Amino acid sequence: MSKIPPRDGYGKALLKLAETNDKFIVLDGDVAMSTRTCWIRDKYPEKFVDIGISEQDMVGTAAGLALSGMVPFATTYCVFLAGRAWDQIRTAVAYGDANVKLAGAHAGINVGPDGASHQSMEDAALMRVLPNMTVIAPCDAVETEKAILAVADHNGPAFVRFGREAMEVITDEDTPFEIGKARLVRDGEDVAIFANGPMVYEAIKAADELAKEGISALVADVHTIKPLDEEFIIAAAKKTGAVVTAEDHQKIGALGGAVCECLSENCPTPVTRVGMPDTFGESGKMEELMAKYGLDCPAIVKAAKRSISMKK
Which of 60, 63, 18, 64 is nearest to 41 (CA)? Predict the structure, then answer.
């Protein structure tokens, strides 16, 4: 199993779009090397604009370009895009249903040593609450590439979050991807684990560990947080009677919140959320931080046993 930074998948998708979509353009917030938009800058300079360290201006410019018929990808670190530019995203993009694509690189605890100021653990919640916004958290570099190509064809605002560091590639070119459709990774009978981003890999490992104890775990890659695949979520909950959500994000407001809202209204089921507790992170190696804050395989195993214990 190879390791590739998800941002490389973003860069590859942009190169494909530059070749096939004459309305495509990239805006970057002075982080082109880090986000891989430099690949467009260097090969297709006419399709690249460096806005500088001015995220609000970048989003406003992207909205104007979209209203003029272009398909702009506004790109910067996730924490700056969802945080600093939220008002512009709300008013200029979501409210007007502008066809802007928001690419949040360096998402989650993945940026490790950069510390709490750069660890974007709240972005999906901020984006999910906005009307008209599609929110996606792909699980690896290959799925990131597919997600970007998909949102380019999707008419309307979309936000895609992806990490910086190399992560295990667990999908391939033949793995299906469709906006709004969860992907069954592994079937199971005793508990359903809904994960996205890097937590899909951790969920697969957790399912292996649970199997050693005779526990059959269903694992699903719920890459699209909004619109949530409610039909799949409800069916898996009915089948297993116990649910775990796992995400590289605050427990509040993103995948865990969306699943709980869905099930509480349609199919009340024991749910245990695995995610960042109600706190900020700190500087450290990614693996150390994932273990400290319960964003790893052992945390998912523990959560699965808890949900199973609450079955009626």
Answer: 18
The predicted model scores a pTM of 0.97
Q: 3-state DSSP call for residue 258? A: helix
261 is catalytic: no
Nearest to 219 by CA among 239, 208, 204: 204
Q: Which residue has the tokens 């699980």?
A: 139
pLDDT at site 163: 94
Are 6 and 168 in contact by the 8 Å Cβ rule? The answer is no
Give the chain's residues under pLDDT 50: none
Check residue 312 and give its pLDDT: 74
In this predicted model, what pLDDT tens digit does every residue of 157-203 receive, in sequence order?
A: 999 999 999 999 999 999 999 999 999 999 999 999 999 999 999 99
Which amino acid, residue 282? Answer: E
The CA angle 207-159-112, to the nearest 5 degrees, is 60
Question: Counting beta carbons within 10 angstroms of the beta carbon of residue 265, is it exposed (0 to 12), middle (13 to 18) or buried (19 or more)?
Answer: exposed
108: left (phi over 0), alpha (psi -120 to 50) or beta: left
**Looking at 19, 46, 55, 145, which residue is catalytic?**
55
Phi and psi, residue 253, nearest 5° = 90, -10
Cα 277 to Cα 233, 246, 286, 301, 302: the distances in Å are 23, 12, 16, 17, 15
Contacts of 68 (CB under 8 A, 6+ apart): none
Residue 56 zone, left/alpha/beta (φ > 0; ψ -120 to 50; rest): alpha
